[in-house]
Amino acid sequence: MSLLEVSDLRVSFRTTDGEVQAVRGVSFDLEPGRTLGIVGESGSGKSVCTQTLLGLTTGARVTGSARFEGEDLLTMGEDALRQVRGARIAAIFQDPLSSLHPLYRVGWQIVEMIRAHEPVSRAVARRRAIELLGAVGIPHPAQRIDDYPHQFSGGMRQRALIAMALALDPRLVIADEPTTALDATVQAQILDLLLRLQQENGMALIMITHDLGVIAGLADEVLVMYAGRIAERADRRGLYYRAHHPYTNGLLESIPASSGAGARLRPIPGQPPSLIRLPSGCAFHPRCAFAMDRCRNEQPELAAVEEDSRHRSACWLPSHLLGTNEQVKQERE
Ligand code: SF4
Ligand code: MG
């Protein structure tokens, strides 16, 4: 059984300008212990998807199902969901200052979180918090446990949040742009830490990012999202060497080559569409160099790129016509 099975998830919000269709029919599954990357520009629906699973999209109209260990998160009562959140599914968000309460000591927050889910004494929870802070690389954790969040650096706060996320040994960790606010060196350290802890604890990880470069090397599978739908789903190799969707190729081209020098960065022209007034047919057509008449009229469904493959793309272009793809790859190498 999959750990998580999301089926035809749709999320919309009513606003004075009209209905915002943030997520429009997203399905995916995740096996225990695996890493799923969800990539897209802002407004692609990547964060809304996982916030909906966590019950954090109040006021939204939600349909579909999201079975976690067999139970549908979308129909679960609020109390049950609160128990799942934190204990079996933990979340790490971009800005640790908004997730750590500024007025309470870091250790106290971890201790309270543990005690909200498990009947352990304060002393036991405190010992566990010190161990966790040590495990995520906070130096002298027994001394730093009583610091306030502002006494930690940005990187240390993100480590503390990871410690808090891992405190209850979750089966799934959702990390939404966990390193965006940090400088490049600290970013790499935090990603390494997350992956090491994932391997040690055997948890599944969903990593959400706007930067394909962040997850291309570490995710088992990647979902590329555009305008609330999945544009392409592929494993790491499929994504790197046989990316099918023009949008995915655009994202790949905008990653600096690892060789660095001489790499040309080509941002994708145009802007993501308004989710209130979506383009007809394929939502990417106004920005796509390959757009044909059919693209303007009919919305492509996610379909297998090769037979018997999990690799799927929502694009009308037949794979064998993507000669330019080869050219793109040669340029990238
Ligand atoms: Fe481009 Fe058409 Fe494919 Fe959409 S369906 S990505 S417009 S080629
Ligand atoms: Mg986001």
Brief synopsis:
This protein is of the alpha/beta class and 333 residues long.
Report the span from N to C terminus.
Answer: 39 Å
Shape: globular
Rounded to the nearest angstrom, the radius of gyration is 21 Å
**Number of domain units:** 2
Report low-confidence residues grouped into runs of 5 or more.
none
| Fraction in beta strands | 15-25%
Helix/strand order: EEEHEEHEHHHHHEHEHEEHHHEEH
Q: Overall pLDDT, averaged? A: 88
* Largest sheet entry: 8 strands, mixed
- In CATH, the homologous superfamily of the largest domain goes by the name P-loop containing nucleotide triphosphate hydrolases
User: What class do helices, strands and sheet pairing give?
Assistant: alpha/beta
The largest sheet has its strands arranged as 6-7-8-3-9-10-12-11
Could you say what the CATH topology of the largest domain is called? Rossmann fold
Ligands bound, unique? iron/sulfur cluster, magnesium ion
Main CATH class of the largest domain: Alpha Beta
Question: In the CATH hierarchy, what is the architecture of the largest domain at level 2?
Answer: 3-Layer(aba) Sandwich
Number of strands: 12
Helix content: 25-40%
> Count of helical segments?
13
